[in-house]
Amino acid sequence: MTQNLTLQGRILTASGWMDGRVHLADGRIAAIDAGLASGRQPERYILPGFIDLHVHGGGGVDIMEGGNAISHVARLHARFGTTSLLATTMTAPPAEISRVLADLGRNCKERAPAGARVLGVHLEGPYINPGKLGAQPDDACQAAMAQIDAYRALAPVALITLAPEIPGHLDIIRTLSAQGVRMQMGHTLGSYEQAVEALQHGASGFTHLFNAMTGLHHREPGVVGAALAHAEYAELIPDLLHVHPGAIRTALRAIPRLYCVTDSTAAAGMPDGEYKLGSHSVTKCMGGVRLADGTLAGSTLTMDQALRNLVQIGLPLADASHRLSLYPADYLGQSERGRIATGAWADIVVMDADLNLQHVYVEGEEIGLVDA
């Protein structure tokens, strides 16, 4: 249920920091006023809600379970400040992907109470290189427009990860990017030259930069080199386990609108133990999620911790916030999300001076927090 209320504190507005008040009405930001009551100093930060474009699960539930799994996942992540997300699939046989997309299509039409808004689907595979699966199941295949059109008829596919070096994929990239689908390179053994060609055909991003792609070498720059040299946008997992802080800082200097994702699994928000990731069984232990052979298999990261990690490695709070809210919103063309501005959706997180969550609002509805 949406609320009409006023929030007070240090606000990260679309034009910068302001000490003042944000007025919420009917699920939107109705007004922003400068100045604090009684001249009090702000004790909390008011930031745009987090937008996560790569979510496989959470709260013990995996997206590939289908049914109402996404509602459960959306509620879990909302409790950690994520106000909108893309439900992300795993590589799987076509019949399984179709089943899950049909369920996601139904669930994307309305927001689950107390949950994040599901903006659509991130189809991560099956159009990836079988030689660079990472934690993806071994069901990779070559993309075909007829199959993709069938998938898109079932659910709003906003983003697709594929390997550009697979024959026929450049044409797929060109066709779908012209239709507004964000095409990302990932799980790829492609060369620098192949990645640059994919960008020229309309590819616009890179999936979990550095992970599951050809790395940077000074004589063979690889897909990582293409991203660092040419990308405007790329996603990165800032759990400080998938990517070293030094590599994160390298990417920050090179990619203007580098944004962050969790790549979270069913293990997010859960104790150590065994969980599902698509058809795989994975183990959460010591802050990470791995296959039996030790391969990293998604993460346990939540977006509030991603913010703290970015600040920990030296980013100013406003810059860290942009990479969790503004940039992913802009990447998807979501001009009414990811920013605190009059008329925008009332997707807001309130944090204390130590960047601990105090309140979360999704389209004006206050969400109960983890410790509530």
Automatic annotation (TrEMBL):
Domain named Amidohydrolase-related: residues: 45-365
GO BP field: N-acetylglucosamine catabolic process
Q: List GO molecular-function terms, semicolon-separated.
A: metal ion binding; N-acetylglucosamine-6-phosphate deacetylase activity
Q: How is the cofactor bound?
A: Binds 1 divalent metal cation per subunit.
Supply the InterPro entries for this chain. Answer: Amidohydro-rel, GlcNAc_6-P_deAcase, Metal-dep_hydrolase_composite, Metal_Hydrolase
Instruction: Cite the binding residues for Zn(2+).
Output: E124, H187, H208
Pfam families on file: Amidohydro_1 (PF01979)
User: Keywords on this record?
Assistant: Carbohydrate metabolism, Hydrolase, Metal-binding
The annotated active site, in chain numbering, is: D263
Which cofactors does this protein require? Answer: a divalent metal cation
| Metal-binding keyword on record | yes
Cite the binding residues for substrate. A135, N211, A212, R219, H242, L296, A297, G298
Q: NCBIfam families under this entry?
A: nagA
Q: Which family does it belong to?
A: Belongs to the metallo-dependent hydrolases superfamily. NagA family.
This protein is called N-acetylglucosamine-6-phosphate deacetylase
